[in-house]
Write a structure and sequence with these properties.
The structure holds 2 protein chains of 2 kinds. Chain A has helices at 35-41, 94-98, 123-134; strands spanning 9-10, 15-18, 29-33, 44-48, 55-56, 61-67, 71-75, 80-85, 107-111. Chain A is an alpha+beta fold. A 6-stranded antiparallel sheet of chain A has the order 1-2-3-9-8-5. In chain A, a hairpin with a 3-residue loop joins strand 6 and strand 7. Chain B is globular and about 55 Å long. The chains are: A alpha+beta, B alpha+beta. The A-B interface holds A 39, 42-43, 45-46, 48, 66, 68-69, 71, 94, 97 and B 17, 28-29, 32-34, 222, 226, 289-291, 308-309, 335.
Chain lengths: 135, 358
């Protein structure tokens, strides 16, 4: 059973969003891929994150995670400007496997539009979604 | 319907991620395929390969039969226990399967064939065995465990009785021997030393757990693929198949054209093909970030047949089919972009060491 923290929001393409509050610098939202996603991909070997300053739109392919098995686009769940990409992943892509909700975060975005809450799931909804997908 | 090996429940209990492989439910990894890969290169790992087909051929004319059936020449096998790698060809030269044949005795040879091809292989073998009055018996009663790595043999030997241990320790590379109901061969598919053990299915789980207690790391199909690719070994269905002959699949060394009067199936077609310039299978090293994968296009011409990330080299490597005139530098189209790659000599890695300079 994969780990789905209750304080995050989730997309159908298996990204997570940590809403802006004290934990994240600059009040930005933090984005990564879920435990379920990293487990399905297997060991990651390359991660490409967006550079600070890049403008991203919700639904836009903004990062790439590549595992022994497959390469996969990561879609930004929000629109705004990238504050930071997680530089540690260039040499330690395995952080995404080991700690997908912590040190394996991918990038941070300063949003410039309200987050479309209806497009995101809470933990219980995402757990159901993953269970349905497995059927 | 999916097939399960005798070790299936053991894999599930030990946390394996199970995937379908040629109709079999097999472990992909037990947590991290890269750690499993390193365990084999640095210490010892084990693979359940019970899905492969073990076929015993018996009869007075069995050697004569195999000299006609296989592209490599079992006439070269003089000492009992010796193994030979060969392709089994269609008359047109396409590869039906690649296999290992063991010379057990003058009236008994043992084949190990791929899981995904076992049914068609058996039908083909039976059809051609009949005129030679050779009996074909599939050994579904046997499980198979491959123990591979620099310490694999030392960690396997304690499982044997003292007298057997001496014999197993003395096995030369590419030789096997029977130990009661077991058959142990010093063969493998990783580029490391080790054993492949065929044993009654009922012994499989106990043996697996005993090996685990010896510190042998369970490894899945994921690591098996990265290890064999680093070792420059072909995978049937990727690097050769019924539409590709051995000469364009890096397997010319397995075709015995001498003696010239041995008329094996596919010989006439290969005699013509060897005189015409065609494609070749080469090793590729990606010069940039990214991962080579099968079916990626090569510019100016060619295709990746097997690609992966090499955990030993920390770079992406591949086998690729390119024209025999290809230059040393090529480009590969990865997700819509061209990336530089170099043609390199295989194997990429052997006995734990990188053989190509990065």
């Amino acid at each position: 059973m994969s780990n789905i923290p209750s304080d995050l929001r989730y997309t159908k393409s298996h990204e997570w969003v940590r809403p802006a509050h004290g934990e994240v610098p600059d009040g930005a939202v933090e984005i990564g891929i879920t435990d379920h996603a990293q487990s399905a991909l297997g060991d990651l070997v390359f991660v490409e994150v967006p550079q600070a300053g890049r403008a991203v739109k919700a639904g836009e392919a903004s990062a790439v995670v590549e595992s022994v098995k497959a390469a996969s686009d990561v879609y930004s769940p929000v629109s705004g400007n990238v504050i930071a990409g997680n530089g540690a992943l260039a040499t330690q892509p395995e952080l995404v496997n080991q700690d997908p909700y912590g040190s394996g975060w991918l990038f941070r975005v300063q949003t410039n539009a309200p987050i479309d809450a209806a497009a995101l799931m809470n933990a219980a909804e995402y757990a159901n979604y993953v269970a349905e997908e497995a059927k | 319907m999916s097939l399960k090996t005798a070790l299936h429940d053991t894999h599930v209990l030990q946390g394996a991620k199970i995937v379908d492989f040629g109709g079999w439910e097999m472990p992909l990894h037990y947590g991290s395929q890269i750690e499993e890969h390193h365990a084999v290169r640095r210490d010892a790992g084990m693979f359940d390969v019970s899905h492969m087909g073990v076929v015993d051929l018996t009869g007075d004319r069995v050697r004569e039969f195999l000299r006609s059936l296989l592209a490599n020449d079992v006439g070269r096998l003089k000492i009992p226990g010796k193994a030979l790698y060969s392709c089994m060809l269609l008359p047109g030269g396409g590869v039906i399967d690649d296999l290992i044949v063991y010379f057990m005795s003058d009236t008994w040879f043992r084949l190990v064939v791929n899981a995904g091809t076992r049914d068609k292989d058996l039908a083909w073998i039976r059809r051609h065995a009949e005129p030679f009055a050779v009996a074909v018996a599939e050994r579904r009663d046997l499980a198979m465990i491959a123990i591979q790595g620099p310490n694999a043999r030392e960690k396997t030997l304690p499982l044997l009785a003292p007298a057997q241990r001496i014999v197993a320790r003395g096995l030369q590379n590419f030789f096997g021997a029977t130990f009661g109901a077991w058959f142990i061969a010093r063969t493998g598919y990783t580029g490391e030393d080790g054993f492949e053990v065929m044993l009654p299915a009922i012994d499989a789980a106990g043996t697996w757990n005993a090996l685990r207690a010896q510190g042998v790391q369970a490894a899945g199909l994921g690591a098996r693929d990265t290890l064999r690719l680093e070792a420059g070994m072909n995978l049937y269905g990727n690097d050769m198949d019924e539409n590709h002959h051995p000469l364009e699949s890096g397997l010319a060394w397995t075709v015995a054209f001498e003696p010239s009067d041995r008329d094996f199936i596919g010989r006439r077609a290969l005699e013509t093909l060897r005189r015409t310039p065609g494609d070749q299978l080469v090793g590729l090293l990606l010069e940039e970030r990214g991962v080579l994968r099968s079916h990626q296009k090569i510019v100016p011409a060619g295709e990746v047949t097997s690609g992966t990330f090499s955990p030993t080299l920390n770079r992406s490597i591949a086998l690729a089919r390119v024209p025999s005139t290809a230059a040393a530098g090529v480009q590969v189209e990865i997700r819509g972009k061209l990336h530089s790659a170099s043609i390199v000599k295989t194997p990429f890695v052997r006995h734990g060491k990188a053989l190509i300079s990065l």
